[in-house]
Amino acid sequence: MVSINVQPLRASAARAGCHEECATVASKRSASRLSRRCATVASKRSASRLSRGTTITGDEVDELSKQIVQVGIIGQGRSGRNIHAQLVHQLQDHYRIAAVADGIASRRELAEQEFGCRAYATWEEMAAAEPQLDLIVNASPSELHYSISLELLQRGFHVLCEKPLARSVEEVDALIAAAERSGKLLAVFQNSRYAAAFTEIRRIIDSGVLGRIVQIDITVSGFARRWDWQTLQEKGGGNLMNTGPHPLDQALQLFGGDAMPQVLCKMDRANTFGDAEDYVKLLLHGEGRPLIDLEISSCSAFPGEPFVIQGTRGGLHGSGTKLEWRYFDEAEAPEQQLTREPLFNADGKPAYCSETLPWRTATWEAPAHPRGLSAFDAMTEQLYHMLYRALVEGAPLEITPQQVRVQMQVMEACRRQNPHIYQS
């Protein structure tokens, strides 16, 4: 909900290339094949019901004709189970978890109980035994994302890969090429693109009320020590690769879509027990673009607000649940002109530039999800709805591997600038 009020306050002066076209064509071909397969399944189900003399209502016909995407999930850990499987299991009008793969027996048993699916010890076993899968979610450990996604595409599966997609631009290019050769979709789990606050921020910026955007601060910081595998370079860990893909995706969208910015980055190891960084200060800039200041710190006892925006006619600040912005209309502002002479008050004493601007203020609060989903699950749900449209209806992906390629270019630049942490 957005509320706006007008209040006088005092102010003192003291963004498709060839790759994307190919991906769209592949998406439409895949959607056509998937539609035909699902229609056949629905027809067989209807015939079975009719053969038993069962009357099928109109609503049941609609239900039977729905195209259910059969999903396999690699990994049943924090990501594979807690993020993907538990949410996908709620989207039964669109998806069905047919199989999972995990090396831990207790996780396989739990998945069989929770989702009624088949479970395999390795992803290779699952892929070999389940060739009918419409989509495989790659929620393996980070260092395996590239190699597993590449082989899945080569085997002819659509893939949704967790972040980070890969470790280098070269690996992203290889995945894009494999997707184009196979005619399969390669999607990346960048669900923060659908964060409610981020969507509202883009709307506000696009409205123009803040004027030209000069600087955008995005902060994902706190104070924490960490000692798990995601602190290790060999595992694709560190704040930039682990947390960074989400705010960096947002930052690049606000910077200007697929444009490659100039990069200035400082990294440190502060509270981590591993050899990867847990402090990142990243500045993105370019001619005619806003300066983006992105901070991902694990040593900030007093972190700043997640979003702060400076514009020529106002600004914005806030979090994922609440935003506030203020702006003025130049037509309503006092008329001023440059003067080279000293300024004086009415009593003849020296003065500073001072005026009363007709500020307008507005606020936004994140709406409650109709089914009570958390903010994180709500944006994950939107990503899966987008992916369903791409798989079944042939709609283009809204988050493309080409966009993620720019993200990887930025990350490579960050590592080059910090040889004290990344020596090769």
From TrEMBL:
<dbReference type="Pfam" id="PF22725">
    <property type="entry name" value="GFO_IDH_MocA_C3"/>
</dbReference>
<dbReference type="Pfam" id="PF01408">
    <property type="entry name" value="GFO_IDH_MocA"/>
</dbReference>
<dbReference type="InterPro" id="IPR036291">
    <property type="entry name" value="NAD(P)-bd_dom_sf"/>
</dbReference>
<protein>
    <submittedName>
        <fullName>Gfo/Idh/MocA family oxidoreductase</fullName>
    </submittedName>
</protein>
<dbReference type="InterPro" id="IPR000683">
    <property type="entry name" value="Gfo/Idh/MocA-like_OxRdtase_N"/>
</dbReference>
<dbReference type="InterPro" id="IPR051317">
    <property type="entry name" value="Gfo/Idh/MocA_oxidoreduct"/>
</dbReference>
<dbReference type="InterPro" id="IPR055170">
    <property type="entry name" value="GFO_IDH_MocA-like_dom"/>
</dbReference>
<dbReference type="GO" id="GO:0000166">
    <property type="term" value="F:nucleotide binding"/>
</dbReference>
<feature type="domain" description="Gfo/Idh/MocA-like oxidoreductase N-terminal">
    <location>
        <begin position="70"/>
        <end position="188"/>
    </location>
</feature>
<feature type="domain" description="GFO/IDH/MocA-like oxidoreductase">
    <location>
        <begin position="198"/>
        <end position="316"/>
    </location>
</feature>
